[in-house]
Amino acid sequence: MRSGLTSTFDSSIRVQDDLFGFVNNQWVQATQIPDDRARYGAFDALREASEAAVRDIVEKAAASDAAAGSPERKVGDLFGSFMDTDAIEKAGAEPLSERLSQIAALGSTSELARLTGELSRRGVWGAFAFYVTADAKNPEQYIAYLGQAGIGLPDESYYREDKYADVREKYVGHIERLSALAGVPDAAAFAQKVMALETRIASHHWDVVATRDALKSYNKHSFAELKELAPEFDWDAYVSGLDAPQGAFDEVVVGEPSYLSGLSAALTEHDLDDWKAWLSWRLISDQAPYLHEAMVDESFAFNGKVLSGTPKLKERWKRGVAVVESCLGEVVGQLYVAEHFPPRAKERMVELVANLIEAYRRDFETLEWMSPQTRERALAKLARFVPKIGYPDKWRDYSDLEIVPGDLLGNLARSADFEMRRQLDRIGGPIDRTEWLMTPQTVNAYYHPMMNEIVFPAAILQPPFFDVDADDAVNYGGIGAVIGHEIGHGFDDQGSRFDGDGSLTDWWSPEDRERFDALAQKLIAQFDEQSPADAPDIKVNGGLTVGENIGDLGGLTIGYKAYSIAQEQNPAPELDGFTGNQRFFLGWSQVWCGKARPDEAKRLVAIDPHAPANCPANVARNLREFHEAFDVQPGDGMYLAPDDQVRIF
User: Fold this and answer.
1) Could you give the CA distance from residue 583 to residue 556 in angstroms, rounded to a whole number?
2) Which residues, 6 or more positions from 616, have their beta carbon under 8 angstroms from its beta carbon?
3) Domains in the chain and their CATH numbers?
């Protein structure tokens, strides 16, 4: 049996000083980030493999003689419409003209609200994002949610912090250049209007830490209350433009109420012409990546080069694959699974998941900070976990989605409308528990608090995360810890606010919450002192990343415990010069192999709830099992005194 270790270790770095560096530094030093990427690592390598597999599937569909209207034909025609550069260049910016004329003709804020709803159906978001999911206080039925939006920079902090002044200046230039390419007259004045209004909108945005608070961001309103909250916004016109079914907005959950109030005030304090410029920019910036080459290049020059430091635009076929994935993802997923996901991989994963759940069960029974009452409820929630592995049991039906050969923007608009209709039609109805929020070809995983489910698409179930033919140690350090991470989200600072039914209910005792929060604060402080390896001059935001950090720490801790359970039946041999316990931690670290461009590392620190790769890899310093496996001693870089170690699970 092979070990499953894929890294070439750097003997100049002691594992006791830097687990991430020991495992990954040789790769980091030898690897150039591809020119079309802002970062690259283990996740990205698998994404490239998935992308290539999907390309093969899509190109076969495009070349096939599948019947008109069949799923395969739709895939082929959509991809073909994106790859038809002659037609796209010939059209230029003309596909925008009708909608830009509509915006220019708006005579009131009510008409603005109506058109905002119409554009949302085409996938062009206005001042807020609209989506449908389970009601967190009644998770047996769907409800509409409204969240803050309306800005073009990554986060509200980009509009106010001095360190982003250069980005703001470049953004105004970008607005001017791209809008001029779209045919907007006096593009310089247009850009100033857009920036001024976006700055006003951003001033009412909640920051990234506040928005992730499950309790603060759950604010249910009746339609009448929504009108009181934002009286200057014509909600009736918006709902009409959205073509929402009768009663769809009888109740909505508002993520950031003060944002809507601020937006309402801004509607009367800025001229209608400013709002028309802003909505025109929302349309132009959204559609630019699908128009002629000059607009595509300008869009990438800012969003790729300036914001992330990415030197080169992705090849067109890669962007075409992404379009197909976004519109017809589960059609491709069925074909992907048939070719790339062997049944025995799912069987092995079922065994791994069972051991992880058993490890959590044993852990909860002995946790010192958890009271008997909370322990009982935690075990009850754990017993109701639903694992989904590989692919859905029920595939999405795209028969009502029309794809027209050669009509790229029309296809994108119809795809957005198809998805919006699917979402709107289920408001107030029962939850579809067969649904997946990721396709099988996605290299990722997730926990859904209202569904109390963990989901592992087929594409992540490959080395270095999972090797069906490898020894248990690296599999438990890789995918096992990832499973533990996702289960742990059900009990992290936000997931722990949802009970086993998925309801947003405070089921912990106040004393348990206080003890848990103290441990979380200790972890926040630990990460606040860390820096991305690719941008050592800045610090991680421990408050923003705490949920993922708890997930990583818990996943590693429980992954190790699950590995120990597996060893009860099948003790590990020494392989490649390492014991099983050592290979477990080496397997964990090789999952985090990666590097980022400095600009991208800084952008992610501002907005990403995940800590930079070197930080979760080295979270192992909190485990006494790691200290024992590698004989870590005081003075070593990875050493943490027992009193400083954070152990939540």
Assistant:
1) 13
2) 548, 549, 552, 592, 610
3) 19-32+351-384+468-644 (3.40.390.10), 94-290 (1.10.1380.10)
Place of tokens 């250049």: 177
**Alpha-helix runs per DSSP H in 568-644:** 580-591, 598-607, 614-617, 624-630
Q: List the structure tokens of 219.
A: 């604010």
Which residues on adjacent β-strands are paired with residue 456?
A: 389
pLDDT of residue 528: 96
DSSP summary character for residue 40: E
Q: Coil, helix or strand for 457? A: strand
Q: Which residues are CB-contacts of 637 (< 8 A; sequence separation ≥ 6)?
A: 14, 16, 17, 18
CA dist., res. 565 & res. 388, Å (int): 22
Separation of alpha carbons 396 and 202, rounded Å: 36
Cα–Cα distance measured from residue 402 to residue 418, given in angstroms and rounded to the nearest whole number: 9
Cβ atoms of 166 and 178 closer than 8 Å: no
Give the C-alpha distances (Å, rounded to integers) separating 41 from 28, 33, 97, 384: 9, 9, 41, 34
d(CA 572, CA 575): 9
Strand partners, 39: 596
Strands (E), 91-225: 128-135, 138-148, 220-222
Q: Please report, for residues 34, 491, 641, the alpha-carbon distance to residue 624 in angstroms, rounded to integers and kept in the order given.
A: 38, 22, 9
Instruction: State the pTM of this model.
Output: 0.91
pLDDT at 1: 65
Is 150 within 8 Å of 201 (Cβ atoms)? yes
Confidence of residue 566 (pLDDT cuts 50, 70, 90): confident
428: phi then psi, degrees, rounded to nearest 5: 85, -10
Q: 3-class secondary structure for 67-90?
A: CCCCHHHHHHHHHHHHHCHHHHHH
CB burial readout 579-612, b (16+ within 10 A) else e: ebbbbbbbbbbbbbbbbbbebbbbbbbbebbebb
Q: What is the pLDDT of residues 320-357, one digit of tens each?
A: 999 999 999 999 999 999 998 888 888 888 888 899 99
The pLDDT tens digits for 592-630 are: 999 999 999 999 999 999 999 999 999 999 999 999 999
